[in-house]
Amino acid sequence: MNMSLRTVIADDEPLARERLKMLLAPDSAVEIIAECRNGSEVVRELKTRRADLLFLDIQMPGKSGFEVIEEVGLPNMPMTVFVTAHNEYAVSAFEVHALDYLVKPIERPRLDEALARVKKKIRLEEAFAAREELSSALQALRTTGQDPYPQRFLAKNGNTGSVVSVGDIEWIEAADYYVCLHAGGKKHLLRESIRALEAKLNPSKFVRLHRSAIVNIDHVREIHRDGRTEGWVVLSTGERVRLNKTGWQKLTAMSGISTS
User: Fold this and answer.
1) What kind and span of H or E run contains 179?
2) CA torsion through residues 83, 107, 97, 206, sign
3) Closest to 38 measured CA to CA, from 21, 14, 22
4) Strands 100-103 and 79-84
């Protein structure tokens, strides 16, 4: 089956558009019919010409990617692959609901995966289902936006991105310019300082034990005191994490945790 995908690229960064065009060039099925620098141009393009595929940046001047979708209307949207630089809220919604998303800088293997999904959708004539997924993504974003704390983080390992549920995080460890998320027996690196990450987390769930460690209190099973200023906690996994006097005071102020 010969396939031609009339494609629109929407990104306010010229270098990002050029990179995406370069990566798409080897695919003969992709015909780039327009490049848009902002949300208004995307709306105008989609209302003027038929497009099969849209690479849509979330954060653009004037109108965001989500405002573009709302203005054009879901029934009139082409297959849409979201593009984001760093947005935990959006990524968490896309992972569950959307056709696909790409994280900048876009790499060829990940782009090939997205294109394969697009082509499969078209072959199976699931355009209507894809629009329903877009609707769900918008609703999920609105719902997530009502909660000031992210529910998921995107941790990158080379070209691979792993979505880590905040509730699954047992503890967080500072690692130079990164933090290491310990979740489900695995370690995930996030390019963020421990101080910046602490500010994003729900303080009723996550407690800073000392300068290099934060714990999820749902995974704390015991607190042990070792002298007046030091101690450690035992997590549900059996791991031990050191704590200082301030960390001990914070944890013991919360109910449901045994101390010794």
Assistant:
1) strand 178-183
2) negative
3) 14
4) parallel
Same structural domain for residues 140 and 17?
yes
The residue to which tokens 């790499």 are assigned: 107
Number of Cβ atoms within 10 Å of the Cβ of 254: 13
The enclosing domain of 160 has a CATH number of: 2.40.50.1020
Domain boundary among 104, 121, 145: 145
Cα separations in angstroms, 31 against 11, 39, 115? 17, 21, 13
pLDDT band at 104 (very low <50, low <70, confident <90, very high): confident
Average pLDDT over residues 52-60: 89
- Strands 213-216 and 206-210, bridge-based pairing: antiparallel
Give the pTM: 0.51
**Rounded to a whole number, what is the distance in angstroms from the first to the last CA of the chain?**
69
**CA gap 30, 79 in Å, rounded:** 13
Determine the 3-state secondary structure of 172 from DSSP: strand
What is residue 85's three-state secondary structure? coil
127-145 vs 65-72: helix crossing angle, rounded to 10? 130
Q: Counting beta carbons within 10 angstroms of the beta carbon of residue 102, is it exposed (0 to 12), middle (13 to 18) or buried (19 or more)? A: buried
Task: Give yes or no: residues 45 and 115 share one domain.
Answer: yes
Q: Across-strand partners of 81?
A: 55, 100
126 assigned to some structural domain:
yes
Q: 212: how many CB neighbours lie within 10 A of its CB? A: 14
Amino acid identity, position 111? L
Distance CA 165, CA 167 (A): 5
Q: Tell me what pLDDT residue 5 has.
A: 92
Q: What DSSP string runs through 20-45?
A: HHHHHTT-TTEEEEEEESSHHHHHHH
| Domain membership of residue 69 as a residue range | 5-145
